[in-house]
Amino acid sequence: MHTPVGQTRLVLASASPRRRELLGQLGLSFEVSAADIDETPHPGESATAYVLRLAQEKARVVAARAPGAWVLAADTTVALGDELFGKPRDAAEAREMLGRLSGRTHEVQTGVALAGPTGEHSTVVRTHVTFRRLSAGEIAWYAGTGEPLDKAGSYAIQGKGGFLVASVEGSPTNVIGLPLGETLELLARAGLPLPWSAS
Predict the structure, then answer these.
(1) Is the Cα dihedral 8, 180, 185, 79 positive or negative?
(2) Count of C-beta atoms within a 10 Å radius of residue 179
């Protein structure tokens, strides 16, 4: 666990090691307290509404048990048209998702929410990712590595899954799970000390 900066506590409401690593790279001090919520999409809910709702719910749940702290939460989904791709249940579902994403452009959306003593701030960040046209062998091999199993859309661009991707238009850290530029903007809006202003 990191130690808080000054008197301002920052809590990351996520069990994701990727989000923890991204936030830690900025030199920010924070605690980690995961939020356990129902992540089932509502009928007809758009990707934007879905990730924003989940990020806000996660932030509020953890803020309720961390009075006085600022709580940062995020939720990421992959959208192919109107269809949302969450985390696959097993390797077979991962193969099916990857096959459908092969050779196509999809959108990665992350909702980021900050809840604290003086209110809430939130945003949704969108990045377009285009996959190479994948062979059945490539899909089967990657699904068999186990890497896709806890990733929205069944891939990790920062891991072995980087070979699947032909191009990225927008924030690359958004595809990993936490858009850093936009997250820093939310922290600044809330008046939290940033790495270059905390001295």
Answers:
(1) negative
(2) 27
Q: Which domains does the chain have, with CATH numbers?
A: 10-189 (3.90.950.10)
Q: Which long-range contacts (CB under 8 A, 24 or more apart) does 134-137 make?
A: 134/98, 134/99, 134/102, 134/103, 134/164, 136/99
Looking at the annotation, which residues are catalytic?
75
pTM: 0.90
Per-residue pLDDT tens listing for the chain (199 residues): 443 444 689 999 998 899 999 999 988 889 999 998 999 999 999 999 999 999 999 999 999 999 999 999 999 999 999 899 989 999 999 999 999 999 999 999 999 999 999 999 999 999 999 999 999 999 999 999 999 998 999 999 999 999 999 999 999 999 999 999 999 999 999 998 887 875 4
